[in-house]
Amino acid sequence: MTDRRLEGKVALITGSDSGIGQATAIAFAKEGADVVVTYLDDLEGAEDTAREVGAAGQEAIVVQVDVSDEDHVGVLFDAAVTRFGQIDILVNNAGVDASGKEIPWKRAASPDEIARLAVFLASSDADYVTGSTYTMDGGLSRNLGQGA
Predict the structure, then answer these.
(1) What whole-number distance in Å separates Cα of residue 91 and Cα of residue 49?
(2) How do residues 82-116 score in pLDDT, each as one tens digit?
(3) Strand spans (E) along the chain
(4) C-alpha distances in Å from residue 23, one per residue of 43, 122, 141, 145
(5) Using CA atoms, how far apart are residues 27 and 62, in angstroms rounded to an integer?
(6) Residue (of 73, 98, 100, 104) closest to 87 by Cα position
(7) What single DSSP character describes residue 137?
(8) CATH number for the domain including 81?
(9) pLDDT at 93
């Protein structure tokens, strides 16, 4: 049996309905994390991810979100904290598909937009975010995850 290094942690993974995001969600669940699964259009893919998280013995919730919309992101984090009480890991995965082409929905979130939202979510005004943030640039709190 492996050491479940993420036992008791909650991971929020954007774009976890397919590809790298889905694989990350499943891998984190196998390490002991509960997972917030997000999607924009692929509910079936998100539900598949949630089933795999459950098969690994962890809990998942599925939330639809457009990561380029601050209001959507706020609802996402509120749902995560309401269900799990915390968010320990944020993986900013949504934005482009595996081929590097823009996602065929309204538009993909640019790295700058993801960074801006991560800054917003890690700010002192975002009381629904828990865990570590990094302070830089004269007090700017910023999540330094992938894509930010």
Answers:
(1) 15
(2) 999 999 888 888 764 444 444 444 444 555 555 54
(3) 10-13, 34-39, 60-64, 89-91, 134-136, 140-142
(4) 16, 25, 28, 17
(5) 17
(6) 73
(7) T
(8) 3.40.50.720
(9) 80
Nearest to 8 by CA among 93, 89, 129, 126: 89
pLDDT band at 122 (very low <50, low <70, confident <90, very high): very low
Is 104 inside any structural domain?
yes
Name the DSSP class of 75.
Answer: H
Residue 129 has pLDDT above 80, yes or no: no
How much is the pTM?
0.67
Answer whether 13's CB lies under 8 Å from 35's CB.
yes
| 2 located within any domain | no
* Domains: count for the chain: 1
